[in-house]
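Subject: for your reference before the review

Hello V.,

The reviewers asked for a structural picture of the protein, and I figured it would be easier to keep everything in one thread rather than splitting it across files. Below is the amino acid sequence we used in the manuscript, unchanged from the supplementary table.
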Amino acid sequence: MSEVLSARTALVTGASSGIGWETARLLAERGATVVVHARTAREGEDAVERLVSRGIAAGRLHMFAADFTRLAEVGQLADTVARAFPALDLLVNNAAVMAPERCTLTDDGIEVSFQVNFLAAHLLARLLRGPLSAAAGGGRIVNVSSSLHRTAAMNWNDPNRVRKYSRVAAYAQSQLALSMDTLAMAPEGSGITAVSVNPGLCDTALLPLYGRVGAPPAEGAAAVVRLCLPAFRLINGEYYDGGDIAPTAVAVHEDRSQRRLVKLADQLTAAGA
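And here is what came back from the structure prediction:
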């Protein structure tokens, strides 16, 4: 194990399984203190136990639970993390769900994949801006996105897609929104750098959206962790595929679309702020 991330703290959302769990493992193996987020305390405790069984020191792991289908819990998570870690070096927005077969709204009245995959990350980045800015050398945000974002279009008039729902379109829209919002998560002067990344096709719960065969989640996590390393120079707001900047949907770099999305996201997440 190396100590390249020694004295750094990282919050990894959706860290109870798949790419998130492997990301937490790889970061901890490199010396980071890792905040392991899970949907429930039971899932989080199980994730931490499995990390410790793989040789991770328990003292490097801190578990917090929050159900991202409830914006109030996202806000509570941000508040808890900010109190525990006034300086946060890394925020890895990895939590994601597959859009259901039928349009499903959360208790907040938002399509579930749009809320969990995008709005939760938007809210966390906004509420944790202080701790991220306070990190020595500036904090990093790494958004785990998808190549499917290039197939998507924002449905501005009906972001919940209630009138014309498709699970693939809903999921792809959530990933487009996440990539579009990346630059706004690291405003000029904040000292924060934010990027999005395609981890590749991996054998996770989301695999049925892509195909039948995927790489081990550890391979996807390696692509994520590469962007977390201090020696890797990032270009703010860009979308990476592996270690290279990759083409995006046109909307990702449209200033007007970005500003429109931030306004929408701020309105939708006001209840959790």
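For the response letter, the relevant points are probably these. The radius of gyration is 17 Å. The longest strand covers residues 33-38.

Happy to draft the paragraph if you're swamped.

O.
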